[in-house]
Specification:
single chain, mainly alpha, 78% helix, Serine Threonine Protein Phosphatase 5, Tetratricopeptide repeat
């Protein structure tokens, strides 16, 4: 067997092991998934994929330190690995380290503006931290590329409202409810928003003289 054929066979074997790991992870058998990810990592130690898988499996089982180690290895192997940064963001968020989570989600989005896990994680951590500007920017970029995605439209409308941009929030909520009339959270937020807009339009009540 020549060297090139050996490389091809090892690559195919690695891909098979990785796929088996992904399959077992998808059905919730994390112990079996870990077994195949570890075999894949031994066969291709420079590939970040198995470590992403190991990190996700550990995260699902709430073994946060193991998950963090696996995601950090993936980052070291590929400094542009958006999924590894998203994983580190999830670990930090689970540990209530919202500043670290925010930074990791931002790092992920620098490499992949389409990463929905990072977008929604960024929204959640921003609500904890009260820092909205960067999140709004990334949600807007995502919606420009994926117009009508209701899973992002609602968080964006909520952030516009928190940021005092009531008209923008109303515009997004109205579009969302055209796409998904049964979206109860959006209906409730729009009702609250219209109440706020009505109060703003009325302005402060004049003080009564004694």
């Amino acid at each position: 067997m020549d060297v090139n054929q050996n490389i091809v066979d090892r690559q195919r074997q690695y891909e098979d092991l990785q796929e088996l790991g992904d399959y077992y992870a998808s059905v919730g058998n994390y112990a079996q998934a870990q077994h195949y990810y570890e075999k894949a990592a031994n066969l291709a130690p420079d590939e970040p994929g198995p470590y992403i898988g190991l990190g996700v499996a550990a995260l699902q089982e709430n073994i946060l330190d193991d998950a963090e180690i696996a995601f950090r290895v993936a980052c070291r192997l590929d400094t542009g690995c958006s999924r590894a940064y998203a994983g580190l963001g999830m670990v930090a968020q689970q540990k209530a380290n919202y500043k670290q989570a925010f930074e990791m989600y931002l790092k992920c989005l620098e490499h992949d503006t389409d990463n929905l896990i990072a977008l929604l994680g960024l929204f959640q951590t921003s609500c904890q931290m009260g820092s909205f500007a960067k999140v709004i920017h990334y949600l807007e970029v995502y919606l420009e590329m994926h117009p009508g995605d209701t899973s992002v439209m609602f968080p964006l409308a909520a952030l516009y409202m928190k940021d005092g941009r009531f008209e923008k929030s109303k515009e997004v909520l109205s579009e969302l409810l055209i796409s998904d009339p049964g979206h109860q959270d959006a209906s409730n937020l729009l009702e609250e928003l219209e109440h706020n807009l009505a109060k703003t339009a009325q302005g402060p009540k004049p003080s009564q003289k004694a």
